[in-house]
Write a structure and sequence with these properties.
The protein is mainly α and 282 residues long. Among the domains are: 64-134, Arc Repressor Mutant, subunit A, CATH 1.10.10.10; 143-201. The chain is 40% helix and 6% strand. The chain contains ten helices and five strands. A hairpin with a 6-residue loop joins strand 4 and strand 5.
Length: 282
């Protein structure tokens, strides 16, 4: 190659490198701008610090089912202690310990101490208000106290006592009832099928003829009042029942007060001595 051309080429390169070059900015179209914005990813904000939640016992309200389940467990335990012959008063903490309920919330403990146990008819409280014990329906200790109670109900005309009330009040109730034997009567109430205990008063027992019992059972008196029964007896010549019912007392008639007041005539005394008596006032 010609050496003159090579020198000219090298001189052109040096001149080209020495001359500064300014590049013109191209106008950005709207399509290009939208594309760039879409490619940009949104910045994630820093997560806010999570505050630790504190448990407020004052705002804690346990469900009513949990409350009453706890109360029922305590009452059942106290009743069983009484029926086993142990009715020593216990504190609330002792009862919760015996029933495995020491994990109760403070609000539940307060509800038991201030409302539930004090208002429960099966639980009584000591005079200092610190201990509780079981309160039976009837204060029964043995079969003699049960017989006296049934006798009192019979004399006052109060009828019988449900068996379940006796079983909740008397330790070994079934054994005591069996030991009393014919001294008491147990009947089943037809309305709710509950068993009722009555006192068997042997002093008023008498024997009734079988023939009279047949007539008594065949006589239908449903829907008849005393007046109709009395009328039926009179038709058949039976008048001995008249004096059994209460007598109709006639009301007393009040005296009529005089409409006009008349002057009252007073009786004069010593009229036959009118000629002898003299007046000394003058």
């Amino acid at each position: 190659m010609d050496p003159a051309l090579l020198k000219a080429r090298e001189a052109f390169k040096k001149k080209a490198f020495a001359t500064p070059v300014i590049e013109a900015k191209r106008p950005v179209t709207s399509n290009q701008e939208s594309g760039k914005e879409s490619n940009k990813k949104p910045r994630k904000s820093a997560p806010a610090p999570v505050a630790e939640k504190t448990f407020d016992f004052k705002k804690y309200k346990p469900s009513s089912n949990a409350n009453f389940a706890c109360l029922a467990k305590i009452v059942k335990y106290m009743k069983q202690r009484y029926l086993d012959g142990d009715n020593e008063p216990l504190t609330l903490e002792d009862m919760l310990d015996e029933t495995n309920q020491l994990d109760l919330a403070p609000r539940q403990r307060q509800w038991l101490a201030t409302e539930a146990l004090k208002n429960n008819p099966k639980v009584d409280i000591t005079e200092d208000g610190q201990k509780y014990f079981y309160k039976p329906t009837f204060p029964l200790k043995d079969k003699k106290s049960l017989l006296r109670l049934l006798d009192k109900y019979d004399q006052r005309g109060q009828g019988g006592i449900p068996l379940e009330d006796i079983q909740e009040s008397l330790p070994n109730a079934d054994r005591c009832i069996k030991a009393l034997g014919e001294a008491i009567i147990m009947l089943t109430r037809p309305t709710d099928k509950k068993k009722i205990l009555y006192y068997n008063d042997r002093s008023i027992q008498f024997k009734v003829d079988d023939e009279f019992q047949k007539f008594w059972r065949t006589a239908a008196v449903d829907g008849l009042d005393d007046a109709k029964i009395e009328e039926y007896l009179e038709k058949h010549g039976i008048t001995s029942m008249k004096d059994v019912g209460g007598k109709n007392s006639t009301p007393m008639q009040k005296r009529k007060k005089p409409t006009s007041k008349k002057p009252r005539n007073f009786k004069k005394h010593n009229e036959h001595m009118g000629d002898i008596l003299q007046d000394y006032n003058g």
